Amino acid sequence: MAVAGLAVTNVASAGAADGRSRPAHDKALQADLEALVADGSLPGALMSVRNRDGRVTNYTAGVGDLRTRSKVPTDGYVRIASSTKMFTAVAILQLADEGKLALDDTVEKFLPGVVRGTGAGAAVDGRTITVRQLLNHTSGMTTEMPLMPRGILPIKDRYFDARELLDAALTQAPTYGPGQDRAWGYSNAGYVLLGLVAQKVAGRPFAEVVTERIINPIGLKETYYPGPGDRDIRSPHPQGYLPARDDAGKPTGDLVDITRFDPSIAGAAGQMIATPSDVNKFLVALQGGRLLKPNRLAEMRQTVSAPGFPEGWRYGLGTIEMKLSCGITAYGHGGDADGFQTRTAITPEGRAVTVAVTNDEVGRGEVLTFFDKALCAKE
User: Fold this and answer.
1) I need a labelling partner for 102 at 20 to 30 A (CA). Which of 83, 233, 373, 375 fits?
2) What's the superkingdom here (predicted)?
3) What CATH number does residue 130 fall under?
4) Segment 173-221, tens digit of pLDDT
5) Residue 166 included in any domain
């Protein structure tokens, strides 16, 4: 499961550049990728597949820029959104391996007096929330993002400090009421808090923690955590879009280019940018033991029920267990940042797939069906 020396085949939207199918090109997957973008609501799609034998094939479909009608760049950079949570979880688990924290430690141990809810969030208390509960979304932290009540457009150029995100979340009601058992609830705020924990324990900015512990050691040349004020995406990249809405909030049928915005609103929960093939390299390194010891990886894959997720999906520690239609269980994540929808996973045999489309608000069911098929494919 080595990352180095992978064979690579690039496939353009209409097939191989020389007009002939390459050995690793799955024509059925290419046709299905084309079908995803056929009606134009998803302008572009790109995918990287790493086969069990280490061969990498990159696919594209649609257009990369609606204004210029340029092609989708092969293996271009995209916002991976909540797949960032895998990186955050790995950083926390590495710190646990080093004895710098324990998963059942409370948040209070590392951030004394910081996590105290107010108003509707008065029941949220860092003295009763553990690191493990943050990792598997059973902490009770809000599922809302209160600083973007009207979506990304009004705040697209606004920088948010992680503490500001946390303080806003602490005004929100928890996912369980007084006297109730803890309820599972997918919480970006919980992962923002994990970023603060990792930063405090490691003694370095969170972006540096991820870069020095994960990105650099396994040679991810096309993965990065955007710095303060960085609103752009490295080239090459497709443009990201969201549906335009009228004053009443109803879609107009047009698409708005939202490629450029400040991703700090997501922080350690979803700020990162990468190419699909680099995300697959991360999954290969993780499964191959280059980032976590086997017992920690097994712990990462211990799951809880995740109401609201697709049938057969459960949540671990920053990773999703996915039961596929072919009977295989894969592990990965997904993410929806404004303009980009991504899904990524690896099977036990080492087949890794990352697919991205350039509109995060439509076609989610169709993308998941395609993603399942790509993971289950034999070649």
Assistant:
1) 83
2) Bacteria
3) 3.40.710.10
4) 999 877 788 889 999 999 999 999 999 999 999 999 999 999 999 999 9
5) yes
